[in-house]
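New to this. Help decode both lines:
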Amino acid sequence: MRESAMQRHERLLTLVREHGTARVTDLAERLGVSPVTVRRDVETLTRKGLVDRAHGSVSWPRRRTGEAGATGADSAPVLGLLAPSATYYFAEVIHGAHEAAARAGARLILRISDYRPEEDRARAEGLLAAGAEGLLIAPGWRGRRDPAEHGGWMGELPVPAVLLEREAELGSPLAGLDRVCSDHAHGVLLALRHLVAQGHGAPLLVARTDSPTALAVRAGYDRALRALGLELPHPVVDAPADGDPVGFERGVQALWTAVRAGRVTAALVHNDVGAIQMVQRLGELGMRVPGDLALIAYDDEVAALADTPLTAVAPPKREVGRLAAELLLERMGLGVATAPGPRRHLALLPRLRVRASCGAAGAEAVARA
């Protein structure tokens, strides 16, 4: 698999930190890329304050003037980030954390669990061994039992930790951890309220079951229906995991049948990729979006790129990463606060980006609460 720019940046930063100063030509050879690519990467990292650039060479930045213990490269604080993926949804979360760390003169190092919760602990221990002094943790949980089965170790960490886009059950050992997440119930409410305001009855939910976000969307759907005084129009349609064509066709047929029978005229689909694929398949079956079905996607990663641009709920992913990193820096004694405050559970509100798939006309708009 081709290495991403972010992965290459992390390798470049590791080399510079290890050597203090490195020549661009040496970095190009070690990274297996052209000097032009390295110069472009160095320009990006210099703008973010992660390296210092001189003619033909790159240096690890000194701590900012006035910071205690500013003795050179090794004194820069290190934040570890454990994520289930570095693509799609979590790419923006990682970018936000990276930006906040750079502004504070800290280095962010990343490890990926690939949604294997049984490997989260080992990945976190690897971050600690690499010098992380605090951890941002988005566990690779997939099902409801994963927090209890694979999350206990987080309560025993020797460094400060902040949960990212994950919630813990009230009363569980993880409930006392700091956390920053999107309020997905609010995002679902925005979508349903918008569709109802356009004259539709209760929208149908089509959602996956294999991630904490999917489960939060499902739970939020029940709450949103109650808040709006609506009855469940049809059982929630299961959107299958990737690589399940039979399950996908079953979900499409269930949605198609509900619309043809007149039970629903609008739907919320988690996630963007599933929504785009469903719209394509419904078109093959003769059903038009938004003519026959008004549709809103959840995530807003690629929704705007569909043939008919999809209205989508947009969780504040980059802000989640940024605020989580700032909170972790505070816990490490490196934030703006004079003393760490009480533990915090921060829930950030998504926005609804209105496009053509729900019958909107004209330019894109953002619907707020």
